[in-house]
Amino acid sequence: xxxxxxxxxxxxxxxxxxxxxxxxxxxxxxxxxxxxxxxxxxxxxxxxxxxxxxxxxxxxxxxxxxxxxxxxxxxxxxxxxxxxxxxxxxxxxxxxxxxxxxxxxxxxxxxxxxxxxxxxxxxxxxxxxxxxxxxxxxxxxxxxxxxxxxxxxxxxxxxxxxxxxxxxxxxxxxxxxxxxxxxxxxxxxxxxxxxxxxxxxxxxxxxxxxxxxxxxxxxxxxxxxxxxxxxxxxxxxxxxxxxxxxxxxxxxxxxxxxxxxxxxxxxxxxxxxxxxxxxxxxxxxxxxxxxxxxxxxxxxxxxxxxxxxxxxxxxxxxxxxxxxxxxxxxxxxxxxxxxxxxxxxxxxxxxxxxxxxxxxxxxxxxxxxxxxxxxxxxxxxxxxxxxxxxxxxxxxxxxxxxxxxxxxxxxxxxxxxxxxxxxxxxxxxxxxxxxxxxxxxxxxxxxxxxxxxxxxxxxxxxxxxxxxxxxx
Length: 472
Prior knowledge:
Elements: H1 7-20, H2 28-50, H3 60-85, H4 91-110, H5 114-132, H6 138-169, H7 174-184, H8 187-205, H9 213-220, H10 223-253, H11 260-281, H12 286-307, H13 310-341, H14 357-370, H15 377-391, H16 395-420, H17 436-454, H18 456-471
Helix pairs in contact: 1-2, 1-4, 2-3, 2-4, 3-4, 3-10, 3-13, 3-17, 4-5, 5-6, 5-10, 6-8, 6-9, 8-10, 9-10, 9-12, 10-12, 10-13, 11-12, 11-16, 12-13, 12-15, 12-16, 13-14, 13-15, 13-17, 13-18, 14-16, 14-17, 15-16, 15-17
């Protein structure tokens, strides 16, 4: 019998096969991909809310279900945007790859053992490489190759660590590993194995100092692909898997106090927060600035996941959702600017708000949420993470994370002044706002960011509070 969660893998894979034979059809691949992804998203949301009141649902199950919603939400927005933005004659192949990468990400979060996780991660990695380089442009091919080289190293490290894990414990499934950890009490070897595994996932996440592929890949890829990569791909193949490893490390070491690997991962997360924020200040390109901003925001998730207290885990999970929303929105806005002006250079234009008000104001909402300002949703997840650090006694890290939010606000204010709200330049006289198809994802994510911030008490009572209670 097929497990219910595998439907979210099988359906998009079947649709991808059909799409691959529709290259000569102009609209059919986009319609099919959008319909399938939207249907899966709807089923994910209905299933999630139907089970929210059940005690068994919280913990690992609610995490994977929540990640499925994020995956299909971002995939739906990207597929819709790509239906208008894709200029290739191979639209069948383009949307087939998009469906396969969505199925691969669903497989990652539905996996119950590390080997299955590895297989699906490789599916996502290959599809990411194909999407980045799809148009065969020199810059995008270079970005794809950088991604391919570092991702291949991470894959080799991951496969090696899974092999060592199996040799040491005789199991790769999460449940079996937890049981063996509790029974054997053999933490030293497992700490080393999981440390190697965490290294692989940090490379996949694009954390500092393994970030070199991130700016090039995000900048050179088309806007839908950049939104997909930054919005969800790196979180699924890197951060989500890192959360699983950090939870196992916490079980082995009975908390962060006796967890040297967890503390080391926390320092990597903090370094990413500061490095990304400082380097974003220096960028002259909109998409490249967003790439470094993503490195910084992924650091917040990493530091909370490594801390692994119930409050920190809730903050990490909620920040994954928030980062998916506001970063995808920002890359959609960058795509609108690129299509209207032919450039994403910040200093090449100013005053775009007069010509592109919808893009300007939705970008502003996303930027304020990224910086963690109330009442937007990003405030709450950052508050949880910083509060968890303070509660655990990491006062310096909490202060540094708070300071990085100030830096985030600073470089986004620089971007807003330089591109959107400065004095209108002469070279934007013929620019017009893009059509409804390009703006719809921007409006949807703006609404989500505002609604999740204003109605946070509902989210806390029905999702985060039970999640925290189960982890305690």
